[in-house]
Amino acid sequence: MTNILLEAKNIKRDFKDKDRVFHAVKDISFDLHEGEVISFIGPNGAGKTTLLKSISNYLVPTSGNIEVMGINLLKQPRKARRKMGVVFGGDRGFYNNATARENLRFFGRLLDVKEKELKQNVEEALETVELANVGDKKAGTFSKGMLQRLHIARGLVNNPKILMLDEPTAGLDVEAVYEIRALVKKLKQQGHGIILTSHDMADIENLTDRIFLIGGGEIHFSGDIGALKKFAKVDQDESLEKTYLQVADQLKRRD
């Protein structure tokens, strides 16, 4: 068994609206191992975003505990956050008139990367995403696919073991999608633990080791794709998209 990189136990997140308490996430537990890709799938309002924001320290859970490589995220958030790279992607997020290297150096400093390590970290990140040869070109000249790889490089610049990839292939052409999927597989082989979110079931089917079905703020199933198909009572040769549609109704929030 590979090392556990992240362990979440009994995570709850409530939101108060006047006299009503909305339970966005209800007692969720899971772990993430080295060299593993996991995904949370479910309908809008299922609790995916709230859960991921809680894990990445953008929200504080109402209760529960999160350990990031042995560091308590709630007690030492800054230290734990350094072990993670969060990749949102999209066309924005970089200074268009700055080069790829300049952008990564800037964001590396924001992530408290030590100056003596910064240059090497930037070069390694660019090499990993295969942008080293265009590192001195301005980010504003990059294609969507190149920008997405630069976003992943930004997520790697603090040399984290854990990566959270949010919709990494959204809006990309077929060739760029293939490149991003190949990159995710390479990162997995390098031992990174990856939490992948995507509305593209082909991404999930191609990349994910374990799937968590989430609905109404709760986990309804966790396991590999084969086990999910058994859970959904569909044939093993059925697509993940049709498998998900088979169970989608039971994931809808009832409260």
UniProtKB/TrEMBL annotation:
Keywords carried by this UniProt record: ATP-binding, Nucleotide-binding, Transport
Entry-linked PROSITE patterns: ABC_TRANSPORTER_2
SUPFAM superfamilies membership: P-loop containing nucleoside triphosphate hydrolases (SSF52540)
Pfam families per the UniProt record, alphabetical: ABC_tran
InterPro entries the UniProt entry points to: AAA+_ATPase, ABC_transporter-like_ATP-bd, ABC_transporter_ATP-binding, P-loop_NTPase
One annotated GO molecular function: ATP hydrolysis activity
Superkingdom of this protein's organism: Bacteria
SMART domains for the chain: AAA
UniProt domain ABC transporter: residue ranges: 6-241
Family: Belongs to the ABC transporter superfamily.
Entry protein name: ABC transporter ATP-binding protein
Species of provenance: Lactobacillus rodentium
Lineage of origin: Bacteria, Bacillati, Bacillota, Bacilli, Lactobacillales
